[in-house]
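hiii so um. not sure if this is the right channel but i have a protein structure encoded as tokens and i wanna go backwards to a sequence. like what aa goes where. can anyone help
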């Protein structure tokens, strides 16, 4: 019996913080459910998010204090108000928030204060059912939640004393001596309970969002960074799994080598894994991490996939990435362990961008993982460029652009005349220049028409926004703030997406307004 080909899918990339909403930052409230309804109306079967973890320095979701926790900034207030655990915020205050940007410096402390109000209300007024549900959640997630909640309780106290990393804590706590940890859990019990409460609410709300998505035929695409931050609950709780010195400081850090874009490379600063230590327990931390991520996503994009074949290892005292070198990583053994633990195929998109060597391709292909193609990058060379749709394999995921790219209109404005000329020829035909107002739809149509099994575009590009709506510029601070408003959308984008998806086999054909065959004529 011939196996059915994999389903062709299409979707939109939008982080929850970019959703509309009254509380200064997009969250898991009504707008998340509305967005899922909009995706279904638009014939889209995928919603891709960025990492759902707490933001780190520069408000980036890729430098989190936890690989397991959900972002407190995404916890919606409406369910907490409905339960009577917090008061509705002052409408005048809400009116002062910028609906187009997240002002993290103002919004984050305000939202955290409201969550503390809600946790106090829960302790004072929650019924037996909610208390039992909270206790059950804490017990089920104890394998990561206990360390995370204690880490956050300690971190808050030490930050007040301007100690910014766990290696500067009391040595007994930094080394996790059992007596010191037990005393800290007693002394900080109330604060620990607060951080557990926030995670319980995030988990409840996100599961409700996922359930609604599935009911509307939409799957969630998550995002898992390969590395974790040094100042994180994971690194503190599992120091033996990282290349750290006796004081807990990184011996070597992650990055990428010098290339066309940077003469000094990129020094990310994340501690590198001690792969030998991880292998000794069957990669248990990775298995737990991926299993946790797949509880809040149907498909997961793993960032910097090439790092599973080899990592660019930089001495910790080197200020740039110049003095790094490639060090082999046990990707084959790791993914076999994941496959065995998850009992089958891995629902993973491999972010295989950058310096890709045959060993990276072999690892990706051995496990049948779709790689990534970025349409914006396709027009810099000739017709053999691997990012041009006529060169795609079917098992790949094409993006018109990712969160690290400019919007399509922003890219067009900064592209060279040669790139614009080649793009015009490719998208519209030789001699038919692309009209800038319709560029984004030409790019989306080309991606949707490709053989790629998965096609994704940014919400900014669905709306045809310029570079001021860019989500991030790698290596720069002050990003991750963009939000859209429903007034920007209108009916046209959903209709056009639905028709494109139906035309190219990514949605049901009944989304096309086609005439019926004449009565009595057999359908070919």
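sure thing!! here u go:
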């Amino acid at each position: 019996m011939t196996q059915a080909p994999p389903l062709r899918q299409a979707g939109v990339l939008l982080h929850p913080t970019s959703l509309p909403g009254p509380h200064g930052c997009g969250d898991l409230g009504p707008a998340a459910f509305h967005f899922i309804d909009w995706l279904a109306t638009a014939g889209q079967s995928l919603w891709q998010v960025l990492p759902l973890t707490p933001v780190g320095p520069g408000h980036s979701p890729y430098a989190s204090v936890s690989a397991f926790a959900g972002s407190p900034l995404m916890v919606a207030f409406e369910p907490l108000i409905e339960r009577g655990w917090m008061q509705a915020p002052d409408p005048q205050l809400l009116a002062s928030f910028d609906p187009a940007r997240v002002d993290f410096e103002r919004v984050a402390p305000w939202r955290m204060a409201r969550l503390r109000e809600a946790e106090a209300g829960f302790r004072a007024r929650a019924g037996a059912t909610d208390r039992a549900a909270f206790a059950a959640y804490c017990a089920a997630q104890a394998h990561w939640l206990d360390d995370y909640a204690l880490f956050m309780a300690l971190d808050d106290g030490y930050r007040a004393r301007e100690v910014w990393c766990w290696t500067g804590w009391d040595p007994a706590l930094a080394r996790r001596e059992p007596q010191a940890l037990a005393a800290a859990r007693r002394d900080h019990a109330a604060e620990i309970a607060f951080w557990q409460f926030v995670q319980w609410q995030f988990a409840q709300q996100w599961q409700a969002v996922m359930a609604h998505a599935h009911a509307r035929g939409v799957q969630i695409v998550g995002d898992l960074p390969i590395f974790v931050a040094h100042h994180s609950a994971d690194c503190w709780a599992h120091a033996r799994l990282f290349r750290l010195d006796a004081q807990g400081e990184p011996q070597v850090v992650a990055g990428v080598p010098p290339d066309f874009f940077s003469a000094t490379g990129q020094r990310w600063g994340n501690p590198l894994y001690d792969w030998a230590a991880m292998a000794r327990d069957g990669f248990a931390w990775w298995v737990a991490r991926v299993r946790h991520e797949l509880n809040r996503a149907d498909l997961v994009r793993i960032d910097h996939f090439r790092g599973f074949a080899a990592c660019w290892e930089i001495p910790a005292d080197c200020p740039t990435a110049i003095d790094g070198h490639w060090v082999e990583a046990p990707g084959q053994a790791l993914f076999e362990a994941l496959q065995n633990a998850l009992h089958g195929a891995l629902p993973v998109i491999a972010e295989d961008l950058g310096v890709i060597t045959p060993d990276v391709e072999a690892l990706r292909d051995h496990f049948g993982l779709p790689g990534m193609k970025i349409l914006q990058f396709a027009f810099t060379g000739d017709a053999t460029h691997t990012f041009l749709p006529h060169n795609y394999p079917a098992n790949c995921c094409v993006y018109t652009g990712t969160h690290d790219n400019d919007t399509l209109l922003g890219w067009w404005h900064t592209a060279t005349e040669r790139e614009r000329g080649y793009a015009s020829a490719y998208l519209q035909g030789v001699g038919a220049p692309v009209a800038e107002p319709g560029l984004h739809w030409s790019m989306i149509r080309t991606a949707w028409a490709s053989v790629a099994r998965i096609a994704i575009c940014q919400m900014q590009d669905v709306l045809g926004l310029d570079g001021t709506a860019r989500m991030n510029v790698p290596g720069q601070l002050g990003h991750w703030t963009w939000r859209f408003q429903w007034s920007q959308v209108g009916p046209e984008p959903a209709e056009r997406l639905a028709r494109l998806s139906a035309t190219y086999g990514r949605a049901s054909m009944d989304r096309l307004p086609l005439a019926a065959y004449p009565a009595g004529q057999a359908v070919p």
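oh and The two ends are 24 Å apart (CA to CA).
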